[in-house]
Amino acid sequence: MKMVWTQEALDKLIEIEAFIATDNPDRAITFIDELIEHTEKTLSDRPLQGRMVPEISHPEIRELLFKKYRLVYRLRQKTIEILTVFEGHRLLRLDEIDHG
Predict the structure, then answer these.
(1) Interstrand relation of 61-66 and 69-76 (parallel, antiparallel or unpaired)
(2) By the 8 A CB rule, do 4 and 82 touch?
(3) How many C-alpha atoms does 31 have within 13 Å on its Cβ side?
(4) How far apart are alpha carbons 49 and 96 in whole angstroms?
(5) What is the pTM of this model?
(6) In-domain check, residue 97
(7) Which of 21, 36, 67, 82 gives the lowest tally of CB atoms within 10 Å of its CB?
(8) What residues does 61 pair with on adjacent strands?
(9) Is 78 strand, coil or helix?
(10) Is residue 93 situated within a structural domain?
(11) Domain range spanning residue 18?
């Protein structure tokens, strides 16, 4: 399946990398690379691997966990659309995704 990262998701990756970089710039780059690699490897073959997002309970909007982060994605025919990435301790805000 084709995988597309939305601008929201890319912006969140930049924020996460900048946050980690305040303590360890090398680790920040490595972490983001690992997160992207894990997401693409896991979902490309098994797009239903992630669970439905509890806050939404919509079968097309799912999430994959990576370390302490939640990656929210939407299944659309032959595309996996990564909608956002955020720390797992907080709830998804609906304004973070375009659920149209």
Answers:
(1) antiparallel
(2) yes
(3) 19
(4) 22
(5) 0.85
(6) no
(7) 67
(8) 74
(9) coil
(10) no
(11) 2-86
The partner residues of 86 in beta bridges, in order of sequence, read 70
Q: What angle do CA 16, 72, 80 make, to 5 degrees?
A: 115
Query: Within 10 Å of residue 38's Cβ, how many Cβ atoms?
Result: 15
Is residue 21, in this structure, part of any structural domain at all? Answer: yes
Residue 51 phi, psi dihedral angles, 5° rounding: -90, 160
CB atoms near residue 14 (< 10 Å): 11
Number of domains in the chain: 1
Question: Parallel, antiparallel, or unpaired for β 51-52 and 61-66?
Answer: antiparallel
First to last CA, the chain: 20
Residue 75 lies in a domain: yes
Q: Over its length of 100 residues, how does the chain's per-residue pLDDT go in tens digits?
A: 899 999 999 999 999 999 999 999 999 999 999 999 999 999 988 888 889 998 888 889 999 999 999 999 999 888 999 999 998 766 676 666 764 5
